[in-house]
Design goal:
There is one protein chain. With 382 residues, this protein is an alpha+beta fold. It has two domains: 199 residues, RNA 3'-terminal phosphate cyclase domain (UDP-n-acetylglucosamine1-carboxyvinyl-transferase, Chain); 118 residues, Dihydrodipicolinate Reductase, domain 2, CATH 3.30.360. The protein has ten helices and 18 strands. The strands form five sheets. It has a four-stranded mixed β-sheet with strand order 1-2-4-3, covered by helices on one side. Strands 7-8-10-9 form a four-stranded mixed β-sheet, with helices on one face. It has a four-stranded mixed β-sheet with strand order 11-16-18-17. A hairpin with a 7-residue loop joins β3 and β4. The radius of gyration is 21 Å and the shape is globular.
Length: 382
């Protein structure tokens, strides 16, 4: 059994550890679960990941309860690569199937899906998970980030995945409903060491029906576009971004950033809420920056917060945003390659240490402004 210590880590460590345990078909024990959080132990969304992984892998589990600070997880998969998949004869095989998960409250649906994505590389047949919970909640990427940023990026590397959203779930009631569909995948090496030329921005702004009479989605988008136009034209009058650009129209905001897509969406949800995701396309990939609406915060300010994050990213050189940086580590362990990250965050550092616990040795080269995390083909999982 692989013994792991989560004293200096959070939920990402737990999710990644469970995914790695399945990919390696290796039992793990995690002590001090989410030890660096003010409320350590399993919360609803972490428990949902543990229970879902256990169900689809027929794993033996102990500590599967809210607040548990020690868990054990022992997957029980058959081994032997599927035909034509390029997976070695000693690799585990994961049956597909259809599953339903109720996370409870506003526990994050997107973080559950994010943990399951790497399992596509050992699937025997398609796998679908329908989850009920929070689709757009704090401390978690909005569902549009998963749909329009992460999934398009990993599909470029050969991972076959799609996400459908039936109903949005904002904090505190959650109640959202979405489905993740995975198919057997052959992941290619991830090469994201350099950022390509900026091609433009895609904007996805969402409001619940209860906020539609206040035009929250439109105002969020206007705030983001106007702040982006100011970012590169400080000595010129700001461009009236939303007035000058029609829905879906592609016109320049300023000399360097072009609107490639613009979507305003009104959705049903048990709780009022809003979210905005900005996807920046460049020559070698995409990055995503987002913000969630908060009670008492003007919608324009929510859009400006997302735009400020985009401005910070544009000033750097990394091809991915800081959230993708740690989310891609397990996939990097599967296929190998290189990723230039904006900075070595605590999540990235904890993720690299976790990989080492499984015998995978990532190399981290920090130049003071960005860092490159690389894993050679000879040390990958598959």
């Amino acid at each position: 059994m692989c013994d792991l210590d989560g004293s200096d880590a959070g939920g990402q460590f737990v999710r990644s550890a469970l995914a790695l345990a399945v990919l390696e078909n290796e039992p793990i024990r995690i002590e001090n679960v989410r030890g660096d959080r003010s409320t350590p132990g399993l919360r609803h969304q972490h428990l949902a990941v543990l229970e879902t992984m256990a169900e689809i892998c027929e794993a033996d589990v102990s500590g599967a309860e809210l607040g548990a600070e020690t868990i054990e997880f022992d997957p029980d998969l058959e081994v032997g690569g599927r035909n034509g998949a390029g997976v070695g004869a000693d690799r585990p095989r994961l049956p597909g199937g259809d599953y339903a998960v109720d996370i409870g409250t506003a526990g994050s649906v997107t973080l559950l899906f994010e943990a399951l994505l790497p399992l596509a590389t050992i699937l025997e047949s398609p796998l679908s998970i329908v989850a009920t919970g929070g689709t757009d909640v704090a401390w978690s990427p909005p569902i549009d980030y998963l749909r329009h940023v992460k999934l398009p990026l990993v599909r470029r590397c050969g991972l076959v995945a799609a996400c459908e959203v039936e109903r949005r779930g904002f904090y505190p009631d959650g109640g959202g409903r979405a489905a993740l569909h995975l198919a057997p995948s052959n992941l290619r090496a991830i090469e994201l060491a350099e950022r390509g030329p900026i091609e433009g921005v895609r904007c996805y702004s969402t409001e619940s029906t209860s906020l539609a009479d206040r035009d929250v989605a439109r105002r969020q988008l206007e705030g983001a576009l106007e702040r982006l136009s100011i970012a590169d034209r400080e000595d010129e009058p700001a461009v009236a971004g939303a007035d000058a650009i029609g829905n879906g129209d592609a016109r320049a905001i300023d000399d360097s950033i072009e609107v490639l897509d613009r979507r305003e969406l009104t959705v049903s949800s048990p709780s009022p809420g809003s979210a905005i995701v900005l996807r920046i396309d460049h020559g070698t990939g995409v990055a995503g920056l987002s913000a969630l609406g908060e009670r008492g915060t003007p919608a324009e300010r929510v859009g400006e917060d997302a735009a400020d994050a985009a401005r910070d990213w544009l000033e750097g050189a990394a091809p991915v945003d800081r959230h993708l940086a740690d989310q891609l580590l397990v996939l990097l362990a599967v296929a190998g390659g290189r990723i230039r990250v904006p900075t070595v965050t605590d999540h990235v550092a904890a993720g690299c240490n976790l990989l080492r616990s499984f015998g995978i040795e990532p190399t981290v080269t920090d130049d003071g402004e960005t860092a490159i995390v690389s894993i050679g083909a000879s040390t990958t999982l598959l």
